[in-house]
Design goal:
By secondary structure, the chain is an alpha+beta fold. Helix content is 27%, strand content 19%. The chain is elongated, with a radius of gyration of 26 Å. The protein starts with a helix and ends in a 7-residue tail after the last helix.
């Protein structure tokens, strides 16, 4: 009996191999595209690569992998330093206070962005939905700010933002300026989307905080007396936003009993620089502390690096309170290329031209006829006609290459050369969403981020 089963299994395996070889041959014969067989065989490998495109926050634990920017041992060293500081509080009243001030984390609500920055109604950017994919990226954007997860001290963070050049003003975008509740909400949502909604580790773990550009320029020497601490004693005339041109207004979001301007002999400085946390509250701290940081953003596009199919990408953009990206001019084509480079942190493109990580889904598709065949006309997901003539990747593009599941009818944008290609909707690629309207204007961008070299 056992021998008969063994023989039967061998026969089944042989027949299975013959069937697979036949199917592959049929597919190759039906599919004249020179990259067809190579692309099909590469599917499984690319799926694995997609999961490794960026550093990850693993299981929302108190460790972060950020390539060379911050190794695990550096995080452990940071936490040890915080513990040492806490222990030294009882011995030296002049040292930094980090972990002693505790608060009970409350549920993190989600609010709306500035109603004037969207259509005629309030739009909710859904941090919980966005966090599912965006917490795996090293660089994350909302309609107003960009979060860089690299751990830097204040001056390193400020320098980084100043050297991220906005393509239209040719100025550095600058470290984040927060002037109202709407901007503060966007910053809070960005931290939640980038690191998840939960408080990671202790409340003062730097995975819950990011640098913004507020710094104290007057009365900033020495420890602050107790009767001068707290938001009720906050004097905006003593503070400036990082570029020195924008004075703070009446808006602030200080945490309980902050600012308190503690001083440290160990660090040789006082707490006169500011971070924001996932709850949207501010704390004054030391410039030498390393943490993620927020830069200003006046952009339209938000690129998600985790590959998804075209229809899934469209649905995800909508679930975020955004829209799938529409490009209708050369300027917008330039801008989405800039947004893609920022999202991928200027990492080199994949050496294989057609690798999925080199291409980003846009919300543009071919108009199909009654037989579901391409007409050569192109429209956006909202039904509106494509309004400019893009540069297609090759002379024979779009080529409407056809497979059994359909033909190439969706637009992918190349990170390599900013050109377009028609592609199959089921292919998984990074994708671009867009804000219903910009979160600011270029005048604000020049005022809040006028840092760069100027050209």
């Amino acid at each position: 009996m056992l021998r008969r089963l063994t023989v039967a299994l061998v026969v089944i395996c042989v027949l299975g191999n013959i069937l697979v070889e036949s199917l592959i041959q049929d597919e190759a014969e039906d599919d004249p595209h020179p990259f067809a067989i190579e692309e099909e065989l590469r599917e499984a490998e690319e799926e694995a690569e997609a999961e490794e495109g960026f550093s990850y926050l693993e299981d929302e634990e108190e460790k972060i992998m950020m390539g060379e920017s911050m190794a695990e041992d550096e995080i452990i060293d940071l936490e040890k330093r915080q513990m040492e500081v806490e222990e030294s509080e009882s011995e030296d009243d002049e040292t930094i206070e980090v972990e002693r001030r505790k608060y009970k984390p409350d549920p993190l609500p989600e609010g709306g962005t500035d109603p004037s920055a969207v259509y005629a109604h309030e739009t909710v950017v859904k941090a919980r939905a966005m966090a599912h994919l965006l917490k795996f990226q090293n660089v994350v954007a909302t309609c107003r700010f960009i979060l860089f997860k690299d751990f830097k001290d204040f001056y390193e963070a400020k320098h980084h933002c100043e050297n991220v050049e906005w393509p239209f003003t040719h100025n550095g975008i600058g470290i984040a300026t927060i002037l109202n509740e709407y901007e503060n909400t966007d910053a809070r949502h960005l931290l939640q989307a980038g690191f998840g909604l939960k408080i990671l580790g202790g409340p003062y773990s730097r995975l819950n905080w990011a640098w913004i550009g507020l710094t104290k320029v007057l009365n900033n020497k020495g420890k602050l007396p107790k009767d001068q601490r707290g938001a009720k004693n906050y004097n905006r005339e003593e503070w400036r936003w990082a570029d020195g041109n924008i004075k703070p207004n009446d808006f602030h979001k200080w945490a309980r009993k902050m600012p308190d301007q503690q001083c440290s002999k160990k660090f040789g400085e006082c707490q006169t620089w500011v971070m924001i946390n996932k709850r949207g509250t501010w704390d004054d701290t030391y410039a030498s502390m390393k943490a993620p940081f927020l830069c200003n953003y006046c952009g339209k596009y938000i690129v998600v690096a985790t590959p998804r199919s075209w229809y899934k990408a469209k649905a995800l953009c909508e679930s975020y309170g955004l829209e799938m990206a529409i490009v209708n001019s050369k300027e917008e084509n330039e801008e989405i290329g800039w947004a893609a480079n920022i999202t991928f942190n200027y990492e080199p493109t994949h050496p294989e031209r057609w690798n999925k990580m080199n291409w980003i889904w846009l919300g543009t598709e071919e108009v199909m006829d009654s037989n579901d065949e391409g007409t050569g006309e192109w429209k956006h997901w909202n039904g509106k006609k494509l309004e400019f003539d893009p540069d297609w990747d090759r002379k024979d593009q779009p080529d409407n290459w056809t497979k059994r599941r359909g033909e190439q009818s969706k637009v992918a944008f190349s990170r390599i050369n900013k050109k377009w290609d028609d592609s199959f909707y089921w292919k998984k690629r990074p994708f671009a969403c867009q804000c219903p309207k910009r979160g600011c204007n270029f005048t604000h961008q020049e005022q809040a981020g006028n840092y760069g070299k100027g050209k």
